Write the structure tokens for this entry.
Amino acid sequence: MRFAQVQGASRLRHLAQEAPLRALFPAVEPDEAPEAAIVNTGGGVVGGDHYALDIEVEAGAALTITTPAAEKIYRSAGESAQIATRLRCAEGARLEWLPQETILFDSARLRRRIDIDLAPTSHFLGVEMLLFGRRASGEWLNAGALRDCWSLRIGGRLVWADAIGLEGDLAAHRAAPFGVGDAAGYATIVVVGPNVAELLELARRCAEGAASLVNGVLLLRFLESDAARLRRMVVEALSALRPLATGGRAGAPRLWMN
């Protein structure tokens, strides 16, 4: 998918898609960036599935990417599901990566990577929420595998990389001294832009101190024992940060509220 600035407005220039991934374009207010909703028509991800997204925003254009529902990673018989996302943002462009939660069912196996390439004057806001099982149904993530990797480049230079790797007895990993304990899940918010240093104190208030600025990348971390509260914390952070970071509307995309 590629968006460009055409006659002063951000418009779709190119789209190539193949089932089960489809892009829908819900209506937005005239002063808002266009919104693309990535839909998995298969209803979820199973072991052995391979998904790839390549999204580019050309100079001066703006785009928000979201999803209409949480992504479900189902129990696997052995193979891992793989999801690879590449995001590119040119000079003066604005890109928001705001999908809803990813839910790991017990015994799910997921390998996921997000590669982000930004120009020095572009603005980026990204969110990822990952839930360990379906607590409302009494299910914990006790077994399976997770490999989740981020890399972020500004002007071609790698400025931030992050990864988590878990496999086997995930209940033991959770209970380890540096594990996540009884957390229902975690979330990461990434903000990049020319004014990002000015947002650090606000970010620390939003994340109750768990925010830092590294190589021009503002990071917020959330770890919470209640999935609904985790989501509320992320929405509240977006309400505060989004207008200042990218000029987007305060709060989460409207599809999150449907």
The two ends are 25 Å apart (CA to CA).
